[in-house]
């Protein structure tokens, strides 16, 4: 018997915004109506909530506590396919320090105050009261999941919930020491056929990157949202082709930094875009 829907509804009743996750621990992809954010999108919003469409789209932003949404036919179908439950830590007012290996756990025990601890496959989740921006790889084996992110529900854990310590806030806000763009490779498998771009010609990619650079440069306001949406559009068009290179990504990061974005913000926006697309 699939107990995931019942468990998810129970968690939502406690105030935990939940969403279904696939077997690979990622959210379900967008429906056709929301593909390429044609619906206007949700991932850059500061609060969780269902998309205007009835499906659980847009990754972390789909997380909800609404029992009507959770029990709707579309969500019921997704729950039947789900293999685990995800939740939006920021929407619940908490931060998850994701410790991905034994060394990271040793560091946490020596550095962080005791709090609710949940065992994971490879390490532990340390959960604190309070929110901060989500950042991956703040140190080896340590990710911070809070706003604009999701985490797996692995049980209530043990211990008492402590306040988010300053050391975690500092890690989340720490900027790289260099002003050079920090580029990130697209970690998705190349499709069959040698990974060649499935589009019309190499010039199609070049035009796409140039248009993305111009879109960022023309942003008069909401620069962070524009950067995120632009990264999302580029990844949606080319992220699975195997045709993006470090040079292409570097051009996008450079354009964003010229508008005042930090290297760290660029990296987070790129990571969030990839997550929203299920990469």
In words, what does this structure look like?
The chain is α+β, with helices and mostly antiparallel strands and 279 residues long. It is built from 9 helices and 9 strands. The protein has helices at residues 4-13, 67-70, 73-81, 102-111, 166-173, 202-217, 223-238, 246-258, 263-276, and strands at 18-21, 84-87, 94-99, 116-119, 124-129, 135-139, 142-145, 151-152, 162-163. It is globular and about 55 Å long. The two termini are 30 Å apart.
Number of helices: 9
The parts where pLDDT drops under 50 for at least 5 residues are 176-196
Major pleated sheet = 6 strands, mixed
Mean pLDDT comes to 82
Radius of gyration over C-alpha positions, nearest whole angstrom:
19 Å
Relative strand content: 5-15%
What is the rounded distance between the termini? Answer: 30 Å
How many strands appear in the DSSP assignment? 9
How would you spell out the order of helices and strands? HEHHEEHEEEEEEHHHHH
Percent range for helical residues? Answer: 25-40%
Structural class: alpha+beta
* Shape annotation: globular
């Amino acid at each position: 018997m699939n107990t995931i829907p019942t468990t998810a509804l129970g968690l939502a009743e406690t105030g935990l915004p939940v969403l279904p996750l696939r077997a690979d621990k990622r959210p379900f992809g967008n429906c056709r109506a929301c593909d390429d954010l044609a619906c206007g999108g949700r991932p850059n919003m500061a609060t969780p909530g269902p998309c205007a469409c009835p499906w659980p789209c847009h990754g972390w932003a789909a997380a909800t506590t609404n029992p009507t949404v959770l029990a709707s036919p579309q969500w019921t179908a997704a729950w039947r396919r789900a293999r685990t439950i995800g939740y939006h830590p920021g929407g619940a007012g908490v931060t998850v320090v994701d410790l991905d290996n034994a060394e990271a756990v040793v560091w946490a025990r020596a550095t962080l105050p005791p709090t609710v601890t949940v065992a994971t496959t490879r390490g532990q989740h340390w959960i604190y009261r309070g929110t901060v921006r989500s950042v991956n790889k703040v140190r080896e084996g340590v990710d911070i999941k809070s706003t604009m992110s999701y985490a797996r529900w692995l049980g209530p854990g043990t211990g008492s919930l402590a306040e988010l310590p300053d050391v975690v806030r500092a890690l989340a806000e720490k900027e790289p020491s260099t002003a050079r763009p920090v580029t990130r490779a697209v970690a998705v498998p190349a499709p069959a056929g040698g990974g060649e771009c499935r589009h019309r010609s190499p010039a199609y990619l070049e035009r796409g990157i140039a248009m993305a650079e111009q879109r960022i440069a023309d942003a008069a306001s909401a620069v962070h949202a524009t950067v995120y949406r632009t990264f999302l559009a580029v990844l949606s068009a080319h992220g699975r082709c195997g045709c993006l290179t470090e040079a292409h990504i570097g051009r996008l990061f450079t354009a964003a930094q010229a508008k005042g974005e930090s290297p760290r913000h660029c990296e987070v926006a790129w990571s969030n875009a990839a997550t929203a697309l299920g990469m």
